[in-house]
């Protein structure tokens, strides 16, 4: 620790690269080279060299307007790391408790290369269940999980995740709906794949409220159990389950 404090093991080049990544991560929109140099109090030439390497390694993207923004590479790397596997393992236990209480199936999905991938799933108790298998890839635009993930991402991240080029307009109707999902803290929508199913989805957050994934329930009304929670009760139970995974306190009123 002392060695770090006295600078004995400093790595200036690495520090510059990390400074740029952290600065762009906190920026609400793309930044020019001059803006980055000024904010980090570095010379334009050293920032240019570092940006060039980050662009070549696909950590940073250079826009057609000659500005810079983060790609999703760091996001993707995070999901290759063992903590994601630990999250999936922990999620299974939480989902089992949810399924037993709500009498519904549930799954946890995370972003992966333009889609969502299911990393944990449990069936509803009993002899039938409406569920999605682990490993399934699902669409971002027409699913509750996708809406939750997009809603809690920045506008630039949304565009990259959906493959929308910089000069193309973002669908206004979708953007308005995603803003609504973000404010209310969940998605509650009729399934666009299966009749009679209601998609319930809530966010799972990581450190500093970064979005990790979406916890979802393909809700179906139970006719065989009069005591089974209704859709609103199930949504509250799903939020409580997500709270256990992310440490975020949801409003369950």
Assembly classification: single chain
Number of helices: 10
**CATH level-four homologous superfamily name of the largest domain:** GAF domain
Q: Structural class, from helix and strand content?
A: alpha+beta
Counted up, domains total 2
What is the gyration radius calculated from CA atoms?
21 Å
User: Averaged pLDDT, please?
Assistant: 86
Q: What name does the CATH topology of the largest domain carry?
A: Beta-Lactamase
Helix content: 40-55%
Distance between the termini: 46 Å
For the record, the CATH architecture of the largest domain stands as 2-Layer Sandwich
Low-confidence segments, given as residue ranges, are 1-5
Provide the CATH top-level class of the largest domain: Alpha Beta
Count of strand segments: 8
- Spatial strand sequence of the major β-sheet: 5-4-3-8-7-6
**Strand/helix succession:** HHHHEEHHEEEHHHEEEH
> How much beta, percentage-wise?
15-25%
Molecular shape: elongated
Mind describing the biggest β-sheet?
Answer: 6 strands, antiparallel
Write the layout of secondary structure elements.
Layout: H1 2-5, H2 12-26, H3 33-40, H4 44-56, E1 60-62, E2 68-70, H5 73-78, H6 82-102, E3 106-112, E4 115-122, E5 137-138, H7 144-151, H8 155-162, H9 172-184, E6 187-190, E7 198-205, E8 211-219, H10 231-246
Antiparallel strand pairs: 1-2, 3-4, 3-8, 4-5, 6-7, 7-8
Helix pairs in contact: 2-4, 3-4, 6-10, 7-9
């Amino acid at each position: 620790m002392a060695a770090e404090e006295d600078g004995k093991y400093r790595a200036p080049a690495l520090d510059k690269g990390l400074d740029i990544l952290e600065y762009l991560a906190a920026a609400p929109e793309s930044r020019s080279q001059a803006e980055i140099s000024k904010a980090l109090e570095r010379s334009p030439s050293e920032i240019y060299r570092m940006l060039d390497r980050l662009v070549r390694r696909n950590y940073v993207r250079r826009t057609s307007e000659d500005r810079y923004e983060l790609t999703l590479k760091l996001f993707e790397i995070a999901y290759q790391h063992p903590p994601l596997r630990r999250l999936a393992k922990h999620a299974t236990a939480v989902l089992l408790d949810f399924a037993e209480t709500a009498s519904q199936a549930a799954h946890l999905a995370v972003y992966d290369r333009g889609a969502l991938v299911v990393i944990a799933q449990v069936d509803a108790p009993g002899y039938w269940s409406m569920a999605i298998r682990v490993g399934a890839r699902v669409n971002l635009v027409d699913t509750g999980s996708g809406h939750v993930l997009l809603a809690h991402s920045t506008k630039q991240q949304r565009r990259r995740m959906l493959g929308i080029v910089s000069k193309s307009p973002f669908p206004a109707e979708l953007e308005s709906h995603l803003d609504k999902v973000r404010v209310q803290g969940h998605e509650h929508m009729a399934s666009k794949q299966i009749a009679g199913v209601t998609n319930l989805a809530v966010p799972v957050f990581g450190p500093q409220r970064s979005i990790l994934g979406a916890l979802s329930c393909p809700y179906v009304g139970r006719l065989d159990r009069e005591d089974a929670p209704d859709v609103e009760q199930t949504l509250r139970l799903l939020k409580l389950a997500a709270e256990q995974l992310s440490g975020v306190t949801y409003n369950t009123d």
